[in-house]
Amino acid sequence: MKGLQQTFVAIFLAIFLFSSFASAHNGLVHEMEAVEVGQTLGDGKDGRVWIQWKGQAKEREIAKVIVKARKQSGGPDVYIDLRFENGAALDKGKQVVFKDNARKYGSWDLGRVKPAGRKLVLIAYNGEVFVETVTFEYEPLSDDDQVTPEKKLGSGDASFRSSSPHNRRRYGSRLNSAGVGSKLQDQVLNGCRMNKSMRKPSIEVTKVRKSEGLWSSKKRISGFIKAVCVEEAGYYESGELKHRFNFPLSDRYRREEFSIQSRGGEVGEIRVLLFDGQEKRLSVDGY
User: Fold this and answer.
1) For the ranges 99-113, 200-214, 224-238, which has the lowest average pLDDT?
2) 158 DSSP 8-state letter
3) Structural domain boundaries of the chain?
4) What is the dihedral of CA 9, 11, 13, 15, to 10 degrees?
5) What is the DSSP string of 190-243?
6) Are 161 and 245 in contact (CB under 8 A)?
7) Considering only 125-129, 149-153, 279-283, which range has the smallest mean pLDDT?
């Protein structure tokens, strides 16, 4: 039995050393980038803080994200998840649960995905969690790999206008909040935190106009969104954010109109994400 164990260990070490040699020989190294956070996250319920962590990774294929954190308040059902802005929880909806206050490491496998300009968002539920560090593990770069430049959000042929201009002046926009009174902004945020019965947003298409030209596959799609406490809203193609809508922050239900240009052959959809994590998606491919 002892001889069998020694043989197994020898085989394991041989495989490990060969893999390490091959990676070093090819110049392929997993790069680790650690970010010091030092922030308490919470869901804003029952007097807890309402904070989410958002961070920007490099425009490289991400293999894994590792979080070092500990619970500060809440019961055994406190957990955190990780997602891209406007997206669902990553790694098949993985949740890292904190049953006690001990320091814990949580990891999410991202499967070589690139950020494409999107920030990663870490969210805590049912309590407060103190995050110490977030570490990005990137896939190795080969000689042929090139870093994709970060795309500028909000560019392109899209428009979004408010049907309630007086509310726009009162609440302003999260993307351009200059001149908005901090007390009013705090009142709106507090109203969103206290709202425990948000309905899912609704997205309605009211008009579709195909572009002129025999071979053109472009089309102009217009409609409106009805929602409250919108965190983000925008138009995506093949999972990549193409146009971010300027949906004014409000703790009251609003009706906002949109108009976007869609290209044929792309998987296009409109997404709306609320502050409580609810999300609505509408595919525009069938219009």
Assistant:
1) 200-214
2) E
3) 31-138, 158-283
4) -150
5) HHHHH---PPPPEEEEEEEEEPSSTT---EEEEEEEEESSEEEEEEEETTEEEE
6) no
7) 149-153
Integer Cα distance of 32 and 138 in angstroms:
6
Q: DSSP string spanning 14-61?
A: HHHHHHHHHHHHHT---EEEEEEEEEEEEE--TT--EE-EEE---SS-
Q: What single DSSP character describes residue 186?
A: H
Q: CATH 2.60.40.10: does it fit domain 158-283?
A: yes
Is the pTM value of this prediction over 0.85?
A: no
Kindly state the tokens that stand for 276. 């409580």
Q: State both tokens at 64.
A: 């894994």
Sequence-distant (≥ 6) Cβ neighbours of residue 270 within 8 angstroms: 203, 225, 233, 234, 235, 236, 258, 260, 281, 282, 284
Q: What is the largest CA-CA distance in the chain?
A: 81
Q: Which CATH number fits domain 31-138: 1.10.155.10, 3.30.70.330, 3.40.50.10860, 2.60.120.260?
A: 2.60.120.260
User: Each residue of 140-162: pLDDT tens digit?
Assistant: 876 545 433 333 333 333 444 33
Radius of gyration of the chain (CA): 23
* Rounded Cα gap, residues 150 and 116, in angstroms: 6
CA distances from 126 to 41, 132, 190, 252 (A): 11, 19, 17, 24
Q: How far apart are CA 27 and CA 141, in angstroms?
A: 8
Do strands 219-227 and 254-262 pair parallel, antiparallel, or not at all (unpaired)? antiparallel
Whether the predicted pLDDT of 9 surpasses 70: no
161 strand-pairing partners: 257
